[in-house]
Amino acid sequence: MPVPAKRRSRSKKRRGWAHAAIQKHLLVACGQCKRMVNPHVACPFCGSYKGRAVVKHRPLAERRSAKAKATVKPEAHAHPHA
User: Fold this and answer.
1) In a domain, 54, yes or no
2) Count of alpha carbons within 13 Å of 18, Cβ hemisphere only?
């Protein structure tokens, strides 16, 4: 199995990792609903992109509320022989 011919110095190692810092997540305001969304992507809340509606499904807020209503919490388990 091959091994490196020479040791990689600390400065070269650190320069190699210099670009790997965590970047701040960029968000922009949606043109329709003014919520913060990813750039160059259709808004998941109102379904618009560059000022016009492009997504024909229900907005994300409605889907989340419908999903929350549909989720039923399991009741306490009753003893089967009671």
Assistant:
1) yes
2) 7
